[in-house]
Every structure is written in structure tokens, then in C-alpha cells.
Amino acid sequence: MRDLMQHWEMRVSHILDHAAKYHGARPIISRSVEGPIETTNWAEIHKGAKKTAQALVRSGVKPGEAVGVMAWNTARHLKVWYGVSGAGAVLHTLNPRLSGEQLIYIINHAEDRMFLVDPDLAVVINAIAPHLATVKQFVILTDRAHMPEGILPGALCYEEWIGAEDGNFDWVEGSERDACGICYTSGTTGNPKGVVYTHRSNMLHAMAASAPDCLNLTSRDTIMPVVPLFHANGWSIAYTAPMNGAAMVMPGRDMTPAGIYEMLEMGVTITAAVPTIWLGMLQYLKAEKKTFSTLERVVIGGSSCPRAVIEAFQNNYGVRVFHAWGMTETSPLGTTSSFKPEVAGLAPEAQMDVQCMVGHPPFTVDLRITDDAGTELPWDGEAQGRLWIRGPGVVRRYLKAETDAARNDNWFDTGDVATIDANAYVRITDRSKDVIKSGGEWISSIDMENAAVAHPGVAEAAAIGVAHPKWDERPILVCVKAPGEDPDPAEIIELASKGLAKWQRPDDVVFLPELPHTATGKISKLHLRKKLEEMEYKLPEFR
Ligand code: ADP
Questions:
Q1: Tens of pLDDT along 306-350?
Q2: What CATH number does the domain containing 100 carry?
Q3: Active-site amino acid positions
Q4: Number of compact structural domains in the chain
Q5: How far is the CA of 93 from the centre of ligand 1 (A)?
Q6: Whose CA is nearest to atom 27 of ligand 1?
Q7: Are 477 and 492 spatial neighbours (Cβ–Cβ below 8 Å)?
Q8: How far apart are CA 182 and CA 68, in angstroms?
Q9: 327 occurs within a structural domain
Q10: Which of 110, 166, 285, 326 has the largest count of CB atoms under 10 Å?
Q11: Nearest of 395, 269, 272, 394 to residue 324 by alpha carbon
Q12: Which residues are paired to 184 by β-bridges?
């Protein structure tokens, strides 16, 4: 009786076929790299993707070869996204904010065979082109009229390149276990590491991420990924949207609050980005006295979302926040903070406490916390330990690594420190390398930062440990003042110490004009520590 149902390799091309056939007219509105806002639909994206795949095959790209793509979130990027995978090649998305050195390493390491780049980003690639050993052909993602002059000589013009094809093309077939896409982790220490998603891992992850307790995405929704498609698998939105027949709005390269707001007002019901984007947006809305006409939900992750952001969205604008946690290595969704019945009836303040946690995992994700010796810790919301994850969307081994990143039983060490409570809600307290250790105890930098930004005079805050001869480290807060504000450091310390024991309170507040950020918009504690060293910072008791 075995194996009597139909077999269907879980290739991501099925997703776009479905969207084109059953939701073909659903609009995709995007701010094009050339400037104007343009509207297309899933049927047209499907046609463009077929032509892209056909052109890639005609240009000699073979199944399993990597194709580099550096582009903003636009409709054209979606054609490329499915065109590359549909040609049997591997979609390697790149972040233009990485350093030239990192880009050279990543492109050579993945052995990108062709490279497709937006016209305004072509200069970035032009500067490093002589060092790209494997790239045989560059393509600039625009039409003839907008080809940049004197940059990447010999590059093809995308619209002409695919314009020569008729789109009459069958997706390249293969196994669902074939590589589908590559995304490198940012590698704050050491070289970036390549996570290679398979067609199967992307499909299973996208189905899990679409479920009602996660994105709850439907054909009635219009989703705008502000998070770039090159960041952590684009949070899977380029898969979940067509899978569910949702319409899309693509914001292009204008990441100013005004630019994002303009696009959100094009009928967007759900959007997603890291907290820094929303801090800027909330300031803009307040200053301009604007509100949202259609937005219902916002997914916030990538770093911890401050309570003040969740409160502002929900209380001032009626937009529900879904705090989420994940990483490049986990496709990326690990948990989302939707309400289970155990918490749905709580009073508003207690519900807000729940929303500040990162939530619970969907089916396909399995979690545990352990101490350093590997002993599992209780789910009491108190015990902090290493967070481990396993599942079909979690990395087993990094590209070209000699050993597995996950252990034999598939558990992968996330590098995050967390608690889990009796309802299986996870609270991320730190990254293990950012934990502040004082007198042998751990202090959560995330809790302290989130409390500090609740002060109206604080725009951004980072808690870091400063070496101390007796206590090992002592916590301090490094803050950026909100525009036109001059907050009292004592007030900030008071606020950030709420609920903390005396020894956990920050010893000092340092103001800087800005904080260093990583290429994915997170505060770079590594650079911040270096900066304080350069400033020859001393704790108050040693001045
Ligand atoms: P990168 O390091 O390149 O920005 P990732 O997106 O893979 O890429 O980073 C994953 C890390 O981001 C997690 O391990 C965790 O430390 C942090 N993170 C993600 N979401 C959250 C969240 N909601 N709260 C706290 N930290 C988060």
C-alpha cells in the first residue's frame, strides 16, 4: 500500500505557477529603480520569470550554478527571484551595504557564474569586478535608456536580454533537495557563512510562515516587504505572498520614512521590517500628523522590538504588531508572538508583556534551552540559557564547510540566550556574545535597552559591558538623543533599572551622535566597544 499518492517535487516554481494561474490579476505595485511607481501582476511576473530563466539557460548557466543578485525590492527582482530558481540555478542575494572585501569574499566563495545588479548599485560591483574570479557575465537590471554609462563595460541590459526570449519555456526540473538560494550571514567575527536553502526547505518554511498564527496571509491581503529580499531569505515573503495569492507593494530603494509611508498607503494591509525602520516611521507620523489608511498588521523582528514601538503602533494607529524572532540559518522564521488561548484573555498590560516576547514556534520548528553543559533548562520564564533550534528549515551545514553546523541530533545552537515560559513563549535576553557578565551573573542587555528607549528623550540605546577589575564587567548605556531633546542621564538610569536588582543597574549613560549599525540595520556592539576604547572611556568610579 506504500506510496500510492502522487509525487510532486517541492520546487519553488510551483508557487509562482499557482499565483499566475489562480491569482494572476492580483496587483504588484512597485517603486521602480528608474523612479516611477509601476503596477504589474502575478501573471506578468510569471511571464518575466520564464523569460529570465530562458535567458539564463541560453547564456550558459547550468543547474546548480550560483547567480548573484544585488537589487532592491521591486517587481523586477521578483522576476529574477523565480527566474534563477526556475532555471535550476541557485539564487544568491547580496546586501549592497556590505564592505567591498566582504562582497568579494562572498561572491568568490559562492562561485557566482552570472551577476545581476540594479543600475544604481552597479558602481558597487564595478569597483570590485576585477576581483570576481568566477563571474562570466554581468547584467544590469534596467532598460536601454537607463543603462549607466562607463560602468561594468560589456554588461548586458536586462530588458533587452529577456526581451529576446518568448517565455515559452519549461522550468528546469530537479529534486526538491537541490539548492534553491544562498544567503550569507553577516559575519561580524570571521568570514560570512553561506546558508544554502533547498527548494524543499523554502517550500515547507513558506507554508509554515503563512499559517494563521504566523503571517496569516490571504488573497485579501496586500503585503509590503520593507525588509530587503537580500536579508535573511527576504523573510520568505517572496514565497509566502504568491503562495497565498496576496497582492504586493514593493518599496524600491527609497527607505526614508516618507518614501515608505507613500508606498504603505497604496493599500498595504501587512508589512514587515526591523525595529529601526519603525522607530523612524513613528517619529515621521507624529511630526507630520499622519495615520495609516489600510495597514492592519506589522511584523517586526531581526532585533528586539521595544515595547514603546508596539504600544505606539497598537494604541495610536490601531495596527497590530507581531514580534518575531529568526535568523538567516532558520529560513528565517523561528517564532511569532500571536496569542494562544492561555494569554488571549489577559489584561492589556499583561498582553503587552506577552507581545514583548518573541512568541512561540510554528509547526516544523522545534526549540529547547540548555545551560553551558548542555543540560535542558525548565520552561519557567526565568531560567536563561542557550537557545537551540531544529527543523526542516534550519541549516545543517554551511556552504563548503567540512563539518556540520548542527549536531547529530540536528540541534543548532542559535548563539542567542533565551527563556521559555510555561506557555512556550520565548524571550530573547541577549546574543551570547553580547551578554553582560557581572559578578558571575548575567544581565540582559536587551531588557535594559528596551527600557531606555521608552524615555521620550532617547532615540536609540545600546547596553554594553565595560571591563571591571572586581566585577568582571559593569553595564553602561550608550544612547542617542531624540531630535531637540536633552534627557537627564539619571532619569534614563532610573527607567532602565525598573525591575532590576541593584547590582544590575547601569553605572553610566554615554551620549553619542549616532550608534554604529551592521549591514542589516542592527546596532554593532563590536564597533561600539571599539569606539568606546578609542574614546578611552572610563567607568565613573575610575575617573
Ligand atoms: P544578521 O546577523 O545578518 O543581521 P540574522 O537576521 O540572521 O542576520 O540575525 C539573526 C539574529 O538576530 C538572531 O540570532 C538574534 O540574535 C537577532 N534577532 C532576530 N530577531 C530578534 C528579536 N525579535 N529579538 C531579539 N533578537 C532578534
A1: 999 999 999 999 999 999 999 999 999 999 999 999 999 999 999
A2: 3.40.50.12780
A3: 185, 329, 437, 442
A4: 2
A5: 18
A6: 303
A7: yes
A8: 9
A9: no
A10: 326
A11: 272
A12: 194
Best substitution site from 322, 416, 444 to test ligand 1's pocket, by max atoms within 8 Å of Cβ?
416
Q: 110 by DSSP, 3-state: which?
A: helix
Q: What cell does 383 get? A: 531560567
Pocket of ligand 1 (CB under 6 A): 185-186, 232, 301-304, 323-328, 332, 358, 414-416, 428, 431, 518, 520, 522
Which ligand 1 atom sits nearest the alpha carbon of residue 327? 7
**Position in ligand 1 atom list of the atom nearest CA 521:** 4
Is-contact 161 153, C-beta < 8 A? no
Q: Which residues contact 1 (CB under 8 A, 6 or more apart)?
A: none
- What would the pLDDT profile of 228-277 be if each residue is shown by its tens digit? 999 999 999 999 999 999 999 999 999 999 999 999 999 999 999 999 89
Question: In whole angstroms, what is the distance from residue 424 CA to residue 338 CA?
Answer: 12
How far out from the chain centre does Cα 315 lie? 25
Cα 349 to ligand 1 centre (Å): 26
CA pair distance 217, 269, nearest whole angstrom? 10
C-alpha cell at 344: 488571549
Which amino acid belongs to residue 195?
A: V
> In the listed set 144, 166, 198, which residue is the last one of a domain according to the structure?
198
Domain extent, residue 525, equals 434-542
Q: Could you tell me the three cell numbers for 309?
A: 514601538
Rg (CA), the chain: 23
What pTM does this model have?
0.94
DSSP state of 523: B
Give percent of the chain with pLDDT exceeding 90: 91
State how far the Cα of 15 lies from the Cα of 246, in Å rounded to an integer.
Answer: 12
- Residue 146 CA from chain centroid, whole number: 30
